[in-house]
Amino acid sequence: MRRKSHLCFITVTMAVIFLVMFVMYTTLNFHTAASERKKDFHVVGRALYKLDVSWPKFPEYFTGQVFGVAVSHVAGVVYVAQRGENVPKVLMFSTDGEFLQAWNTSTLEMPHGIFVANASSDPTVWITDVGNGPYGHTIKQYSPSGKLLQVLGTAGKAGSSLTPLQFDQPAEIFVHDATGEIYIVDGDGGMNNRLLKLSKDLQMLWMHGEKGQGLSQFYIPHSVAVDNYQRVWVADRGNKRIQVFNSVTGDWLGSWGSCFTEDAPYSVRLTPDQKYLVVAQLNTNQVSLLEAPPVGIIGQCQVVSSIQLADDVKPHLVDLDQKSGALFVAEIGAQQAQRFTPMTLGNI
Fold first, then answer.
1. Are strands 241-246 and 252-256 parallel, antiparallel or unpaired?
2. E strand or H helix at 194, and its extent?
3. Are the C-beta atoms of 224 and 234 separated by less than 8 Å?
4. Residues 6+ away with beta carbon under 8 Å from 39
5. What's one Pfam family the UniProt record gives for this protein (predicted)?
6. Nearest Cα to 88, choosing from 100, 106, 71, 72?
7. Which of 36, 81, 104, 123, by CA, is between 20 and 30 Å from 42?
8. Do 94 and 100 contact (CB within 8 A), yes or no?
């Protein structure tokens, strides 16, 4: 009887050891495969950024198509918006790569753009929802932990360009940290093709809302950013150009198109020192840094550096850590977000 118990103990022990070794093996292979995939890129021009292959530490938390990313540099948190059936719509990571939390909210259908506002004082997370269901065509404000605070637009109803807060697949929002003023590009394939500026209390200040190829006209405006020199930068995706406006008056200042003959700009952000405009190009799988012009001069665009990603990565929207200068890229095709760090702080 004792011998039989001893044999049973040995059998169970061996089974446990085998199971542990199998889990370790599969986990190692998973991370190795992920790391190898991430390393498949090269830089054209000046090497300003390098890929951090260790971020995040557990990439298996990405379970859907990653559409947007936003960084809270004060809290050290990265928010990642993803789409898919039965997947959390927002994932939270630390800037060091630790997984923190998932938002299992039912109030988001198809997140597109995501932005952290008032990071230094009272942070909130804004998300544009381009869904066609009962929660879509809206822009939503959440607490840092995912509590719904406010909804702009009428949920489930696509609106016309005649009504300021009636959206049709709003693409992205940018909230100015100092003033609280809100900039919105509305029209990720919908009927609207608008750039709106709202006051902190949601009053219309100015708007450009005409579809076309002319000055101040848009075709699928996809991303918006504001620099420190009262200039608004808009990725005019359908027209393969970036348009620039005065943030106070709304006056048109210039346009860049020569850098986007092969593919349209999908995302626009500025590095913390305002030296470079960071642009994602989805179809050519590139993230480029363009030289930001001095005050009062728009001129022609000039690409300083390009990160050429692997085929079918599909970089969609980007954001930067305003403290470290780290660049985060949301990648639809690869179903992940990646972190790129400055080669030297002096460059960024």
1. antiparallel
2. strand 194-198
3. yes
4. 51, 53
5. NHL
6. 106
7. 81
8. yes
Of 182, 176, 188, nearest to 164 by C-alpha is 182
Going from the first residue of the chain to its last (348 residues), give the mean pLDDT of each consecutive group of 10, the final group possibly shorter: 50 48 42 49 92 96 98 97 96 98 94 95 96 95 97 90 86 96 93 96 95 97 97 98 98 97 98 97 98 92 97 97 97 98 67
Question: Domain spanning 39-342: which superfamily?
Answer: TolB, C-terminal domain (2.120.10.30)
pLDDT in tens, 47-66: 999 999 999 999 999 999 99
Statement: the pTM of the whole predicted model exceeds 0.85: yes
Query: Is 312 exposed, middle or buried, given 0-12, 13-18 or 19+ CB atoms closer than 10 A?
Result: exposed
First-to-last alpha carbon distance for the chain, in angstroms, is 73
Residues 199/179, Cβ–Cβ less than 8 Å? no
Spans of all domains in the chain:
39-342
Q: Find all residues with CB under 8 Å of 148, minimum gap 6, and list them.
A: 105, 107, 140, 141, 142
Q: Taking Cα atoms as reference points, which of 292, 291, 278, 336 lies closest to residue 310? A: 336
Degrees (nearest 5) of the Cα angle 149, 247, 185?
Answer: 50
Neighbours of 284 (CB within 10 A): 16
pLDDT in tens, 189-237: 888 999 999 999 999 999 999 999 999 999 999 999 999 999 999 999 9
Tokens of 212: 């076309």
Find out whether the peptide bond into 56 is cis, omega within 30 degrees of 0: yes
Cα torsion angle, 140, 90, 56, 32, sign: negative
The conformation of residue 283, written as its DSSP 8-state character, comes to T
